[in-house]
Specification:
This protein has 335 residues and is α/β, with parallel strands linked by helices. The chain has 12 helices and 10 strands. Helix content is 42%, strand content 18%. Strands 1, 2, 3, 4, 5, 6, 7, 8, 9 and 10 form a 10-stranded mixed beta sheet that branches.
Length: 335
């Protein structure tokens, strides 16, 4: 028969072993998670793609966990304020970052971030993938991809494009498009406090000529005629804009650039918590209600294990670095 002292000693050794190894099989020693409210931080502002998806995901997680799950918008600083917020948060799984592919791309574009996009976060779960749409302002005088390319070639380095900041998907998408089309244009960086709605307004008002943006953000402006959709960025057309060709169809052969969304937590979050978050998010993502919502908003659910998503994020970051090297862009100072 084991003595009480022996049991305590064995448990103490196991706890020390877990502290040293951080092994996933120690997750049973983590307390039930969550036991208090969970916060989802998104960095693009109210009404942006991450905001909409976070607000669709939050009530499903709240229902599963029996705890409040709230969404907090933290835009600004070229969409890096939100990640900076999460990077400084306790590594306990109660503060989640909802971000786009920008979380992977920014490591290659920005050199003075107050966090390391790869080392200071753990990728938890892939969520959705969907097209962006290339749009031009009504007053820009271009209605097709071919016309935009022709206008840019007629005035090299004169047309202006907007984005939510260096390293974001809206920026890298235009960089890739310009490279594919063989054109040069001026990047107009956002102001420190700009949300994506401000960037879209700049194209509508003529401060920039064109923009690549999530379809859900610009669809109301397309419907009211303020923005002209030139092409979607994936190899297949979007169900939200079935009459709009792909960019590859419309003049930039082989072009393919989807936007994807995911969840991250601060580095150091216990392995057991990361594993539970990943599995629970995957569970609600597979539910019929959320799948219908995602499809209705022009996306496709992504299905990856947590290790697969971590490898995917690393590969996407390396791909972005190769692209900016090919174009000759040097990492910038963060706004």
């Amino acid at each position: 028969m084991r003595t009480t002292a022996g049991i305590v000693t064995s448990l103490s050794l196991l706890l020390v072993g877990c502290a040293v190894t951080h092994a996933a099989n120690c997750s049973a020693l983590e307390p039930d998670f969550p036991v208090k409210p969970v916060h989802i931080i998104e960095p693009f502002g109210l009404g942006g793609g991450p905001d909409l998806l976070a607000r669709a995901l939050a009530p499903k997680l709240s229902e599963l966990w029996g705890q409040p799950v709230t969404v907090e918008n933290d835009p600004g600083a070229g969409a890096t304020a939100g990640p900076a917020h999460v990077a400084k948060s306790p590594a306990d799984g109660y503060t989640l970052l909802m971000n786009t592919s920008a979380q992977a791309y920014s490591a290659a574009f920005l050199k003075n971030l107050p966090y390391d996009p790869l080392k200071d976060f753990i990728p938890v779960a892939a969520l959705t993938s969907q097209p962006y749409v290339l749009v031009a302002g009504k007053q820009a005088g271009v209605a097709t991809v071919s016309e935009l390319i022709a206008a840019a070639k007629a005035k090299p380095g004169k047309l202006k494009f907007g984005s939510t900041g260096p390293g974001t998907g809206t920026h890298l998408g235009v960089v890739k498009f310009n490279l594919s089309a063989g054109i040069e244009a001026v990047d107009v960086p956002p102001q420190a406090t700009d949300a994506i709605a401000d960037i879209v307004a700049g194209t509508i008002e003529g401060r920039t000529t064109y923009l690549i943006a999530p379809i859900s953000i610009v669809l109301p402006h397309i419907r009211d005629g303020k923005l002209l959709p030139l092409g979607v960025t994936t190899v297949r057309r979007s169900t939200l804009l079935p009459q709009v060709p792909t960019i590859a169809e419309a003049g930039a052969a082989g072009f393919d650039f989807p936007i994807w969304y995911g969840i991250w937590v601060p580095a150091g979050t216990p392995a057991g918590v990361v594993d539970k978050l990943s599995k629970d998010i995957g569970r609600v993502l597979a539910g019929p209600d959320l799948r219908v919502w995602i499809t209705k908003h022009g996306g496709e659910p992504m299905s990856m294990t947590q290790p697969e998503f971590a490898r995917f994020v690393q590969a996407e970051s390396e791909s972005a670095a190769r692209l900016i090297n090919a174009v000759g862009i040097k990492p910038r100072t963060n706004p």
